[in-house]
Amino acid sequence: xxxxxxxxxATGDIxxxxxxxxxxxxxxxxxxxxxxxxxxxLFNSHDxxxxxxxxxxxxxxxxxxxxxxxxxxxxxxxxxxMYLIKSAxxxxxxxxxxxxxxxxxxxxxMFPWRTCYIGEAHRLAEERMYNLALEHNTNLVALxxxxxxxxxxxxxxxxxxxxxxxxDTQDPDAPIEWVSTDDIADVAACVLxxxxxKHANFAYPLISDTLSHRRRAELxxxxxxxxxxYKQASPAERYKILEPIxxxxxxxxxxxxxxxxxxxxxxxxxxxxxxxxxxEAWVQQNKSHFI
Length: 291
What we know:
Helix content: 40-55%
Protein name: NAD(P)-binding protein
CATH topology of the largest domain: Rossmann fold
Number of strands: 11
Shape: globular
InterPro entries: Ergot_Alk_Oxidoreductase, NAD(P)-bd_dom, NAD(P)-bd_dom_sf
Distance between the termini: 45 Å
CATH superfamily of the largest domain: NAD(P)-binding Rossmann-like Domain
Strand content: 15-25%
Organism: Hesseltinella vesiculosa
């Protein structure tokens, strides 16, 4: 494999999985991290791994290091500055000769213009990077995942453990989208190691599983061995639960008002030749957190 991949967000859940997949495939990988020693420990000082120290407040080291890399996996969670950070990184990468960026965007970017804070942050970033890709005759692949399975570990953990309940704003039988971080990382690693022209400037929506809140409560009940009920809360009630946890008005507002109800997408079955991951399997694997 002659391509060299530059990775941001490498120490997070998805980033770690992407890096491990790349290294397992024999891909020379550079990680941009605050703590190089932590990265070395996480990835066992792999021979194919290079660490570059830096953060998103000062991109000097990143800009000096991206030359010689063909591909970039880009992940940034700084919503207010996302379009500025991502477009600055994309500009530096394309100008250094990079050919493909795989951007971790959001399913919420598909919502209508200025109807969702999270979606707007990702949409603006995608738009700026896409224009840069066209300008440099290069490629931007956007991955657009829906609600993470792992959201349960912070948004619902206390409710399940202390009150034996789940809460959201939709009808108990309304279909709700969820996505596995494994599916996201596996698709990213696939795109980063397949021919660039195959994926061109695609945007891939990622939904692993769609199921009702009633069914979700049944899955947790089976996993923890006690009855977990679902409460349909008002948006205001849901906001009061989420805002202290997130300490972010805009994101808590979004997650209290936005509905996502599309069926699972076919990206994983087509690209990876396997079924989408299921929330049922994830709950069973992570039930110890909720008991």
